Amino acid sequence: MVRPLRIEFPGAVYHITSRGNERKSIFRDDLDRKIFLDILKDVTLRYNWHCHAYCLMDNHYHLLIDTPDGNLSIGMRQLNGIYTQRFNKRHDRVGHIFQGRFKAILVQKDSHLLEACRYVVLNPVRVERVQRPEEWIWSSYRATAGRTKPHLCLMIDWVLSQFGSERGVAEAGYRRFVRDGIGIGSIWNRVRAQSVFGEDDFVESLGDYVKGKKQIPEIAKSQRFMNKPPLGDIFRLEVLGDRQKRDRRIAEAVLEHGYTQREIADHLGMHFTSVSRILRTKEKMLIK
């Protein structure tokens, strides 16, 4: 069973989603949502989390969490575990309410967190539950925009500081920023290896956290090899002019960097069976 790669370190920031089992609702009414936010408040205090944005839908939720102490997993066990207990007791049921483990995308704070915050609060608009973000009361938008008092689980200072030092000016800037994001494509098109939202240098800096995990098949292949070099760097012109070098690089691309044979064949303009044959030859040589 594939399990996500968890990269945790002090100061790591995540976009977190957790969905209902069998796509069922995890919030049946507004009281469920209030209970969840109160539990989130307790978790942020206990584990020193900073919640920059949230959005509670019907069968899933979004959070943007800054973890100064690098303790995401233990905090999430507390959050989802306690909420499950409260939900089951209130609705006289037993069993899981969440679909497997939560999903956490590591976010580069200085360059990508603000965009991720906008993405979270625009979720009800994207799925056409409302026309404007302020109409959905179960997100952090209204509080950050200065329309209501923030819930105690929410920290709005960092987001507003990106738009100015004077509170009114910053709130207006935030409202414009979110409004300008309506209709913009999903940020998920730019998520790397299904787990990182950031620039190339940020992804490369995570290399040490992936070491020793490339041979763990339960972790998604795209995550184990998140910092692999581009195929263009592996197959430079001087390599393509030397068949032996090219064949050696084909084996390296598959065995060391996690590329599929189809990806390599498409990049080199070769037939898939030719790449497969070269790889089998190289593997036999390594066994000998």
Description:
The chain is an alpha+beta fold and 288 residues long. The protein folds into two domains: 186 residues, Transposase IS200-like (Alpha-Beta Plaits, 2-Layer Sandwich), CATH 3.30.70; 61 residues. Helices cover 48% and strands 10% of the residues. It is built from 15 helices and five strands. The protein has a five-stranded mixed sheet with strand order 2-3-1-4-5, with helices on both faces. A hairpin with a 3-residue loop joins β2 and β3. The radius of gyration is 23 Å and the shape is elongated. About 3% of the residues have low confidence.
Unreliable sequence segments: 213-220
Q: What fold name goes in the CATH topology slot of the largest domain?
A: Alpha-Beta Plaits
Output the CATH class name of the largest domain.
Alpha Beta
User: How do the helices and strands follow one another from N- to C-terminus?
Assistant: EHEEHEHHHHHEHHHHHHHH
Q: Judging by the overall fold, what is the CATH architecture of the largest domain?
A: 2-Layer Sandwich
In one word, what is the shape?
A: elongated
Order of strands across the widest beta sheet? 2-3-1-4-5
What is the share of helical residues? 40-55%
Strand fraction: 5-15%
Gyration radius (Cα, Å) is 23 Å
- Counting H and I runs of at least 4 residues, what is the number of helices? 15
What is the number of beta strands? 5
Can you tell me the number of structural domains? 2
First-to-last CA distance? 32 Å
Mean pLDDT equals 86
Question: What class would the helix/strand composition place it in?
Answer: alpha+beta
CATH superfamily of the largest domain: Transposase IS200-like
